[in-house]
Design a protein that fits this description.
Helix content is 51%, strand content 10%. The chain is α/β, with parallel strands linked by helices and 319 residues long.
Length: 319
């Protein structure tokens, strides 16, 4: 199917604190768009402040799909996101609107664009055993074990990336095939949409760092520590879970456990957020057909609309 015959969709990407949500709200006002969140932290219920989750007023203006899906004790994969996002996109298109996918979880965007490998379901007994081995031997030792089994996957991962090392070893133990072999056998599933890819970010790194620091302080003022304290006091969550490993939550959790004092927690939280933004920008630089927008551009909305109009998106709406 040629692109012009496909229904339109918009990918609005960018590093954390770059202004994606604000631009998305403006696009909703000018387009018949519905927002789909592409954020691995927004799927958790009760994690609102530290994820900059859209508040009730924002949701009234522009409802977001794929937020508040699961409890923080549960897990949510990129493959499941693809299933849910495709369903939401179909519903939005059927209603005569345009799916506007907004977020910074680049792995979710990649899975949606390219499809996902058929990986075995998690085995809790294998996962728990690998976790205990990682805690006893250290994750660099587990990374070395992975390198002997699957050098390609190991080369992509840092020695302390416990979650992904654990999953790669788990896949091999369950299936007898490496993660790399599973991906090589993947059938490419092109996304059946005419997608315009837009990224937003300040052009100067110092400006993005300032926005990150300002937003982290705003989160603290809104009660971020109390939000994490409520999760901490539940008693069924820990730092090995993807939810609590989310940027900001891990640093506040460690503060509550007495690992850091308050000032060090703030510093580490801001640094971790900067590191996340750097990884996101690295992903974006390799993304094909990407149009960049400047966060501080006084004509930001106008330029975004020009991109959409020039790519046959605006004409498909009454915007």
């Amino acid at each position: 199917m040629c692109q012009s015959a496909m229904p339109p969709a918009i990918f609005l990407m960018g590093p954390t604190a770059s202004g994606k949500t604000a631009l998305a709200l403006e696009l909703v006002k000018h387009h018949q768009c519905d927002i789909i969140s592409v954020d691995s932290a927004l799927v958790y219920r009760g994690m609102d402040i530290g994820t900059a989750k859209p508040d009730a007023d924002m949701q009234r203006i522009a409802p977001h799909r794929l937020i508040d899906l699961i409890d923080p004790s549960e897990s949510y994969s990129a493959a499941q996101f693809r299933v849910d996002a495709l369903k939401a996109m179909h519903e939005i298109t059927a209603a005569g609107k345009i799916p506007l996918l907004v977020g910074g979880t680049m792995m979710y965007f990649k899975f949606l664009r390219d499809g996902a490998a058929e990986l075995p379901q998690a085995d809790e007994s294998v996962r728990d055993r690998l976790l205990q081995q990682g805690l006893a031997l250290g994750w660099p030792a587990m990374h070395a074990r992975l390198a002997e089994i699957d050098s390609v996957s190991a080369a992509r991962l840092k020695p302390m990336d416990s979650q992904r090392i654990q999953r790669a070893l788990e896949v091999y133990e369950i299936s007898g095939k490496t993660l790399t072999e599973h991906w090589q056998a993947q059938a490419y599933e092109p996304l059946p949409y005419h997608v315009v890819n837009i990224a937003i970010s300040p052009s100067e790194r110092a400006q993005l760092h300032a926005r990150i620091a300002e937003r982290f302080q705003q989160m603290l003022a809104l009660g971020f520590v109390d939000e994490v304290r409520a999760l901490y006091q539940r008693g069924d969550l820990n730092t090995h879970m993807p939810s609590i490993r989310s940027v900001g939550y891990r640093q506040v959790w460690d503060y509550l456990e007495g690992v850091y004092d308050y000032d060090e927690m703030v510093e580490r939280g801001i640094i971790a957020t900067r590191q996340l933004a750097k990884r996101q920008i690295t992903w974006l630089r390799s993304w094909p057909d990407l149009r960049w927008l400047e966060t501080n551009d006084p004509n930001l909305l106008e330029n975004a609309l020009k991109i959409l109009q020039g790519n046959a998106i605006l004409s498909a709406t009454n915007g």
